[in-house]
Queue: 2 jobs
Job 1
Amino acid sequence: MDLFDLMAKEKLEKQAPLAERMKPETLESFFGQEKIIGEGRLLSKLIQSDRLSSILLYGPPGSGKTSLAKIIAKKTESEFISLNAVTSGVKDIRDTVQVAKDNLSLYGKRTILFIDEIHRFNKSQQDALLPFVEDGTVILIGATTENPYFEVNGALISRSSVFRLEKLGSEHILKILRHALEDVKNGLGMYEIEIDDKTLAYIAEMAAGDARRALNVLELAVLSQEDLLGKIQITPEVIEECLQMKYMDYDKNGDNHYDIVSAFIKSMRGSDPDAALYYLGKMIYGGENPRFIARRIVICASEDVGNADPMALVVANNAAQAVDFIGMPEGRILLAQAATYVASAPKSNASYVGIDEVLEDIANRETGKIPYYLKDGTSLKLERNYSGDEKSIRYAYPHAYEGHYVKQQYLPDEIKDRRYYRPSQNGHEKIIVDYLNRTKFSVE
């Protein structure tokens, strides 16, 4: 590279977007992935000992897959070559392999081949790459937003270690934003910027785990105010304009947060799907963690719907798992389905009330012993170690009787007449009431 090339490179780097300039260059400045690169973790050990083999980095956009690959190359003093699975073909792979061979034979230097969106590689591309991954000609670092166990060739998976990067938390993005504001060389430290913690937190929340998006918004906000004299003041209104989204005061640790969550739960409990959707939208718009929302729906499905519609818990639980698998923004559709199902379902808290009454009885009164014939190993124990009327008591197997039911005492003598579960007349519980009325007791 001659002098003019170096000058052009420096100019390009200075004009690069803030997100590009602020990419971490060391493990110490790589925030939010301590689970895989923290002290004593496997990937950290492999990097530090320079014994890294091919790996696949799986995680959402903006979680740092490309940055981590470059840090690894720098730390291990390897040549770094990047290909994109969408635009690169078999010829590009072969050319890269040749470069890697030359690096190794001429300079004794290994080559890290970084392939972005590796899940988009077709079979012929993966087959062309496989022998050189296997013999160590290149150290493959593949990046994907999709689960590699579903999307990547099994042969490549078996020759690679898979590491999952988590979506960055708001606290990690806040660190990145503050670092960008302070960094004079690569960041925005040369500007005199006024921005309060609440506005900064709003950017972090709106980024939804994507550090690149957060930095882009911050840079756009600064550039939009740059022509003003003196200090650059970044307000929620400025961020609102940059995001093309209305600013909403939604502090996840403040009273407003708990008020909205409370209104959401009470709307589902009160069978108002429109209100449930409205408060769900407020939480999504405010950057609430979708897992938190999903947990509230699952709890409501059991606490407030219960056996009046047992499918409510199935729908809510499936939505919670699917949201975790799919992520946002598509996850909003699943949350909306579950919330409206729970809100529209018939309601009963009989199970919830029942278990609390049981726990209160156990804590505050003598509830007696388990009937002898219900204990484990009854058939053997009935032959010995008992006396009196117990000899005439045998466990009655319900399936041996008509209707698969036989009247039999299951509660201890001291509480044999207690009724803990009192199903409502709503939904499926009407069927339960009819069944219980046909059998052992009347439901009040």
Job 2
Amino acid sequence: MMPIMKKSLFFITLLLLVVSNKLMAQWPAPFNTILTSIQDSITKKVLASPKTYRYQLVYTQIDRDQKDIPHFTNHTLYADADSYFNPASMVKMPLAFLAMEKLHELNNPGVNKFTSMQFDSNYQRQVAMYEDASAQNKKPSIAHFIKRAFLISENDPYNRLYQFMGQGPTNQQLLAKGYSSTKITRQFMGYTEDQNRHTNGINFVDEKGLPILKLAPQYNKDSFQFGAPIFIGDAHWNSRDEVVNAPFDFTRHNNISLTDMQKMLQSVIFPASVPKQNRFNIAESDRLFLLQYLSQYPSETNYPKYDSAHFYDSYVKFFFQDSTHAMPKHIRVFNKVGWAYGFLTDVSYVLDTKNNIDYMLSATVYVNSDGVVNDSKYDEATVGFPFLNQIGKAFYQYELQRARKFKPILKNQVKQYEKRNPKDTRPSILNADN
């Protein structure tokens, strides 16, 4: 029996190899060159099964002309707005951009990103907030929410940005900017649809706690057009911790396409490179603040003071996340990641000021081999993270070798990053809801 089994395994492996090679031969350039260079067996297995792993890739080459003006060439593989993936924490990025825009357009001289805020409780299950222990002044602010949302992808800052914006204005403004795939319908609070339509009243206060600006609670009366039902998986755990032998319904969950997310990021890093409609109306100082915390590391940051052993530098840099947990000194990654329900996503701009290369790379992958959704048992460590790391390495190596007609001398728009104070004896943050 053993020789027969060995022969069967051989022919199955051979068949998979033939199917994989046929699939790769159909990939458009430059994916056919870049992805076939990967030798890692896990990554090759994922690449050979796009339907199982639901992966999507967007790769943008950046070339400068004689006047040093960047030009962008987009390449996509299986990137389809109708092919759903759960964006998870990716929704924190547009909320941060919109919050900066709202502050700018409020045009109140006493209110900026550092102004202290108070959140009231005005509806069922809403949670008031008057303090933030991780901030230097112990007070909530838009600036501190953005730090926490970007540095290690904390969840509550997203909820607070959502409450500041309101459900209706968030979706109306993203649609008006041309991001038509986007629906941001829920906070990370386990709320009902009705509760997500209501957001807290907010007060901006001065250093003495005296009111500067009061924002009333909001309620979204708009309806959503969700389109065709989205069912994923073979079974799922429901909110009552019961196993249901049916797919999980993502129809009314948050949704953003990979191409829209990458364009949002590009619009903040290179505003002039996208149509005016797609841009966020923010002050230059606020734009540079966003860039700093999209690319700063937890180990560099004083407030919040994250434990740098647990929240290491590549913690939310999936394309560079390997066993060393370190980041090359000459590379900065401006990005946002998301992970939930077995979906892993990274939308990145990579800047290498030593080799003078920069490019954009976005990817999402679904790793849930048991087919049960919401059971917290996913193949992130064994498949998802290794896949994204291998993808990241392959595109980086390709960019190192890619010929450019005009080789640029690249500089980081962020002039200076923070440095952790070595004399600070405060305890580090070891746990965070992200």
